[in-house]
Batch of 2 targets.
Target 1
Amino acid sequence: MKVKEILTEKEGGKLFLLGNEAAVRGALEGGVSLVSTYPGTPSSEIGNVFYKIAQDAGVYFEFSSNEKVALEVSTAAASSGLRSFVFMKHVGLNVAADSFMSAVYTGVRGGMIVLSADDPSMYSSQNEQDNRIMARLAGIPLLEPSNPQEVKDQMKYGFELSEKFEIPVLMRTTTRISHMRGIVNLGPVVKGKEKGFFKKDSSRYVVIPANVIKLRKRLMEKLAKVKEIANNSPLNRLIDKGGRELGIITSGGAFNYVMDVVSENNLKVKILKLALSHPFPEEMVLDFIKSVNSILVVEEVEPVMENEVLAIIGKYNLRKKVYGKLDGTLPRIYEFNPDIISKGMAKIIDKISIKEEKFSTKLPLPLRPPVLCPGCPHRATYFALKKAIKKLKLKEEDIIYSSDIGCYALALQPPYKMADYCLSMGSSLGIGCGFAKATNQKVISFIGDSTFFHAGMPGLANAIHNKDKILLVVLDNRITAMTGGQTNPGVPIDGMGNPAPQVSIEGIAKGAGAEFVKTVDPFNLKKTEEIFKEALQFEDLAVIISKQPCAMLTDAKNRKKGINIKYTINQEKCIKCLICVKNFTCPAIFIEKDNGSVHINSLLCDGCGVCAQVCPKKAIEVKK
Amino acid sequence: MKNIYSIHLIGIGGQGTIKASTIVGDAAMKKGLNVVMSEVHGMAQRGGTVITELKIGDVYSPLIEETNADLLLAFEPAEALRALSKVNKDTFIIVNSTPIIPFTVSLGISEYPDMSLILEELKSKIKKLLVIDAEKIALKAGNIISSNIVILGAAAATPNFPVSKDLIIQSMKENLPPKSIETNLKAFEMGFKEVIK
């Protein structure tokens, strides 16, 4: 399948789509006009697809500078009568939360969907928060699809629901839905309106106390109506396998595991699958509870529906046993899989067969933590900085490395160990300011270009204004790299591939009042080290912008030009000092097990040539 | 029951595991079968273990139950051991013989087992094991990058593989860049012959 087919494949056709790709098709079938995001895994591929097709689809798409801005852009569009779609990873909704909470009060005119991709088991995230709780906090209708087909269908439905009740709708996926591929039957793509018109109504769109006191009441009225819909919605459906001993209430990805375990063991149970799950369909669930002897709630991650079920049982004074996370039948944390569900259900159902013993090995397995890629400019930046620190005889324990969200946080691993603290997008600066005030240690803050635009600028203003003498290193690799390479305000291309003005990080730092602002090319190790030395000795806040494109970008460029440089180690010159292995540590360089000689894996080598600068004997050469 | 065929693919980021399984999934769809697949993106992009699971048939969840894999495609030898909990004695295993040694081994903070021990361990547990040097074969076909397609070719030749060679080839043509298709078809055929020979 080619990406363009997500747009061009006709009604009646079918595609093997990723959940994230299905979200794009759903938005297109729903007549979306404007789409915005800040990239974040597991939602990133939605943006990557829009980047490629938005122009042809006649849809406006942007990578906004952060999730809050993205949400505001989409909210304004929907307030103008357009259908809009904003998506982000679960923690992105924290960034957007301030406006998100109010946008639910003001409501919208065109349909608006906010998609939050949660990350159970934290494959690529800093926490495991369950944004179904955010839906309850905000008071927003919630959709929970279970597979790519449902993602697509519920996107379309979400627009209708949103428009009918003039309220944004939250769609919650999880990693296993966003990154699940399945067959999707397609409907027609509908062209959205080109432009909207904003009809003024300050009593609704200006959230001063006198207005919100009324809007709050109206929100409750809207939710009561959506609850009626939920109670009768075909999205919330009963699957009756016979028997009334056990009823299972489930949603999202957990539904899939339940279905497979039930079918594998031929269980006679009733299953209530909820997809329009907030407002919680109380009447429907009450009927279900009454129809069975006991209930098992299977959901990822928090016991959200389980608490709702317990509340209903309490409210109606029923006597039913509820199994789930709260009684330990199922684990409270991490994502589920079919084996976890089997084991949990075996505690309450005798019939379930537990697997024969599984194979395992006693051999040691190599650890493969994610690493900075071969050719990654960050490695060069860290190497040069480390050398400057050594030359100035600064002690490691006297330095605090305040890192941030991005590939560069991988420097926490040996041999660099240059990430001591990292909380959230942009935190390197605020945390750095705090350490500068609270300790006498030298603070070095690291932040990427995209993260700087996202949430770093307020921290920089704070550091300058409050006279915090930190060294700020902006690792500018000309892209939002960790999420797969999206554009940001610092690059000359926008979210639809068109030329765009570049916002200058150097200009921002200087304009904010930083006196020491220098840009370096980390691939020139010597020069970079010199400037780091200067910066480390500077008496005030210093900003270094270490600028060199991400290896992925350089790769793509080189492929186009037919450039394919590899390096090799001249075994006659190599003295096995191992500086390239132990201090520089590029994943392409390895030690031969049998004789201890050092080699470069040419499949992995990126040809950046920085290792050749590191070698004291000039033994690393271009491969001929 | 069990009208389900499960394929577990394990490799290192950048080896093309996701592409290989997408081709199979797409082919299964073309055959009119239900198919679901799970893939990993993000942090593990390069250097980390990448797992892809594919289930064809009457299923909902894309995750394979322990011991239930019908076919294991290990793109790296030590990674085959990491997937042991998913296989049983009748699982067909195809292992690429080229090891990728992570930096943790060079730094001495983890160990890479001897190749002979890895194979011994697999042979002691599994009846149907095929070890191939996918990189070498891919190089012969024209480009080392096609090693994933060599493994795909071998997979397509295993008994009980649920989709025909023709459908896989059709799917390859639709999922791979036209520029590389000739080399990839060659790599596929050479991989296919590794099982048949």
Target 2
Amino acid sequence: MYDITNQNLLDNPERYQRFPFLGMEFITDYIKKRNSIIDDFQNINQKKILEFSDVIIPKNKLLKENIITNQKLYEIYTKILQDNEFEDELNKFIKKFEITRKIYEEYSKDMKIGIGSFYELNNYIILSLCNLFAYEKKINLKYLNTALKLNDIICSSQNLLENNKENSRLLEFILKKEIEYVNNLSMKKGVSK
Amino acid sequence: MKIGIILTPDERSKAYLSKIISNKINLNKIIFMNDNSNKIFSDEISGMSKKYGFEISKSVKEILIENRLDFKEFNFLDINSKILIEYLKTLELNYIIFTGGGILKNEILNIDSKFVHFHPGITPFYKGSTCFYYSILNDDNCGVTAFIMDEKLDTGEIICQKEFSKPDHEFIDDVYDPHIRSELLVELFKKRFLENHFEKNKLNGGETYYIIHPILKHIAIENCIKKS
């Protein structure tokens, strides 16, 4: 039913165009699939999360002229948590992701060109975290929408997470947050079972 | 004032054309970009479209021929085609109703005719993709904006806007979306909105939405079909 994440979405991007309506079972199966991924990762790591000191920025990538994705997303994340203005900067990343379905290691100063690998799942996880907290702050569905797509990619690329406990730890948090917000929205709209 | 329409082989064009015929709206030119694609619909969807005044199971060409409408046909589906642009220049239309066929590039936007788009959202609050689903989730209704297309996304001069109640069925993409857009199209002609003065949208801000994730889409549709 919820088979979006069955294939690697980094190599086979999902466009979500005119997705068919499959009924309430689709939502139920989505929650089941997401919980199953959480359960798998809980066996790997049970630590509490959300200290960003462990987000390592490789120094050799800190070039003045480029935007270092990992670093910039960390800055945005901090701004969200500190209630500073974040939307313009976050929106640029959302736009890039929504158009390409990829997050690159670096971007040109004007954000027009993605540079380096788009397989660094850590960037997708941090962007998802930013979107989920942005949704919590602004209650704007745009943010939850992008988080769902980012989390689809992350869930579809489990092979890149298997040997990375910190990513696993973050993944558990973002998936639980996402399910919580989806459940809250469903209840608000009177569609929960 | 000379007004034309460029049709494409899809549900939106079927709704626009059917409402133009049933409301006896006279157009100066009908152009049909036809790549001969044809989608098959279930009896349930077909029945629902009839309820809203158009027949989704009939092709655009069938509707045109049955109603003996004169039209110019092109065998491609590309709104930026040089052949189409050169042809449009010869027609000297004031307005052209846009139904689809791609994103308009500068070359076609720079011809003397203005392109009218019916966007499924109240701009500037709902710009971008699949706005009716966001509108159902946020506001419990849907909306359509008719505007003059420009080089940016859903920012053109607003001609008219209308809110609609959300549907009580699941056929939003194929039936309800074309229906509410075509309803505003009829109103635009009946109330002669194109003869009025309309201005560049002065409202700043709003929101640009991206294609809705299937989970949010399912919540929106379940909300529409749930029994109160």
